[in-house]
Write a structure and sequence with these properties.
The complex is a heterodimer. By secondary structure, chain A is α+β, with helices and mostly antiparallel strands. Helix content of chain A is 29%, strand content 33%. A 4-stranded mixed sheet of chain A has the order 1-2-4-3, covered by helices on one side. The termini of chain A are far apart. The longest helix of chain B has 18 residues. Chain B starts with a helix and ends with a strand. Chain B is 46% helix and 16% strand. Classes of the chains: A alpha+beta, B alpha/beta. Chains A and B meet through α1 and α2 of A and α2 of B.
Chain lengths: 79, 179
């Protein structure tokens, strides 16, 4: 378990590529710089995709927690 | 020779090259196959998520995939009517490029996609519209096959343009694709 407190949580379980990154990018636009978004996904591609998305869009993944087939990404909005 | 002047010139040129290309993806969508159209829309919507602008230029066999199955183009000649009849009427009618097997393969793929919670082509087009992906339709393809803008789907800012418009978009894009 991660002890990071998220400002917003999103349930993206069951969604397939490209929806997880699309939904996260839409959500992060609505948030303030410095806030943390926690996204839960079951998409196996997300493990590679979320870091790639974060790097290109200028955000930071501060923690990744795997729990069975669910992966939780803690994303900090940087700009 | 003034070294400082030369240096300033070089710096300006580098700046021009850097500024000339935007975080933009320009795509030629040529194929009318279900698999290739899906790939095009997944890449296009994914690019918007990555913070890029996306332009899709529909030409040739991809054009009929943008038809609205409920609408009818008016004033078509014989050839136009033939193309209308022969080519798929809209995104729900396009077939796989491989393993179609008289429609069975496409049906199976659609079933699997639904089961795996993937978006179908109609869903991907709706998502692209929501994200602001720009769709241009090749004017010449429309004219050649007798398609009319009033039989196309309702898509925000969909325009029928020529090759110059696409090339202008492509020339300042970081990524260009042909699908």
């Amino acid at each position: 378990m991660s002890d990071i407190k998220a400002d917003v949580t999103m349930d993206l379980k069951g969604l397939a590529c490209p929806l997880p990154v699309v939904k996260v990018s839409q959500q992060i636009k609505k948030m303030q710089v410095g806030q943390i978004l926690m996204a839960e996904t079951t998409d196996p591609g997300a493990l590679a995709d979320f870091p790639a998305w974060a790097k290109t869009s200028g955000n930071e993944i501060i923690d990744t927690v795997k729990d069975g087939n669910v992966t939780k990404f803690f994303i900090k909005k940087l700009k | 020779m003034d070294v400082n002047k030369t240096l300033a010139d070089i710096q300006n040129q580098i700046k021009e090259i850097q500024d000339g290309r935007k975080d933009k993806l320009s795509m030629v969508v040529f194929s009318g196959d279900l698999d290739k159209l899906l790939a095009a829309f997944i890449i296009g919507t994914g690019a918007v998520a990555m913070g890029m602008e996306t332009v899709m230029f529909f030409t040739f066999w991809a054009t009929p995939a943008l038809r609205d199955k409920k609408k009818k183009g008016k004033g078509k000649n014989l050839f136009g009517k033939m193309f209308s009849f022969m080519l798929p009427k809209g995104a729900s009618k396009v077939k796989l490029s491989k393993m179609n097997m008289g429609g069975m393969g496409t049906g199976m793929m659609k079933y699997l996609m639904k089961k795996k919670n993937m978006q179908d082509l109609d869903g991907m087009i709706a998502l692209a519209a929501e994200l602001g992906v720009k769709i241009y339709v090749c004017e010449m393809s429309m004219d050649l096959m007798g398609f009319k803008m009033d039989e196309m789907i309702d898509y925000p800012d969909m325009k029928s343009v020529g090759v110059a418009t696409f090339l202008q978009e492509a020339s300042d894009s970081k990524i260009q694709l042909f699908i």
